[in-house]
Amino acid sequence: MTGTPQIGQSLDLFLSLRAPVALARVLQAIADIALPLAYHIRRGLLAGEFESAVGPTHDGVAQTALDVLADDAFVNGLAGASVRAVVSEERDRPVALDPGGAFLVAIDPLDGSSNIETNITIGTIFSVLDAPAGELGAAQFLQPGVNQRAAGFVLYGPRVAFVFTIAAGVHIATLDPDANAFHMSRIDVRVPAGSSVL
Prior knowledge:
By secondary structure, the chain is α+β, with helices and mostly antiparallel strands. The protein is 22% helix and 34% strand.
């Protein structure tokens, strides 16, 4: 890998400079899946009745059509990114993808979807872990947080932000709606010394 990470760089170039190739593919896949999802969210009711309840209640909140759309998009989109299995907040059990995949992905495809009609920020939350050898089950996803290879979230609001860490530092890429692509807007974000964080 050559070059220097910079503000304004495309997300894929930044990942090629900062992350191992296989891990970069997972993060780029998540960002790519977020693009059409952001489009649907921006269109609101013009995209259809996505806030309609269509599935069982999880934690007291009914599954919406938008939850299902997001869940299907992430599970299908991660199939070619060296992901062995995905566990989703929208499903009862892990979904096996690539038997030889190097990673496991835990995801809440669309957190806050019940608030979609109020036009406030909602998001996707994810964690990437190494896939252990042997039989795969839900227990393989229950690893200590220090085992994460990457984690982050996508915020769908007035602007769309892809916030992530790849073991060192937190970085933010912002969606350029004209180019329909993420570009780096913050690198190695830190809470200022002396700040009060609740």
